[in-house]
Task: structure prediction
Amino acid sequence: MQIKDPRVENFLGWIPERIIDVHNHLSKTQSAEYLNELTNQLPLERVVVFPLYSDDIIMQNNRIIDAVKKFKKISGFMILDMTSKEKAFTEMERCLSEGLTGVKINPPFQKVKGDVPQSVIKEAGRRDIPVTIHVDSTRTLGYIRHHGKIIIAHAGFDVPWKSLLASFEKDNNVCFDTSLVNFFRIRRMLDFIEPERFLFGSDSPFSHPTLELMKLYFVTDSREIINKIAYRNAKQFLGL
Ligand SMILES: [Zn+2]
Result:
């Protein structure tokens, strides 16, 4: 006897009406044109894009600046030199004046010197712009010290979630993007942290928004929570 799984039927009509994807990259394989087209295929009101890392930070940021100027549904974050506070602050100033609206820090993939990440996070907080950070250890968790708006990429999938809870359970300025992390971890974290602190992200092109949305479908049955994670939290947190 065949038993129909109603979750499969329901998923087809489930996709939220409004979505903001807070974690995407432009890369050799993913252009701004492609992402913009995706915003027409899926109900994506906004996609936030980051550069990938290379030694030519200015060139990478310029590509994001061009995308933001060309497509109104694309918001862009900058990368900065984490070995020199002076260079980081100068580039931050330039990128903000060109329309970028946040900072991406990725210590596992970037050279880092001294307390430059902490200084950048503090400066971003002073300017009230969000920082998305990839944390992979207690060292990188330590960069976050109650300054401004922080988004922990992949809900911190490289660190035990209990360490995350211990550090940030009460910090409402620290949010978690849902990209790449498995749905069960998000479900468990939701037992301890308010749904307002989760933001939908796909990490495209390393994953895909359709796949990442499907994951959310299995996180909770609550439409209210889904709408918050898919759209409303990001709209508020990023001031869109
Ligand atoms: Zn990423």
The pocket of zinc ion is lined by residues 23, 25, 203 (CB under 6 Å).
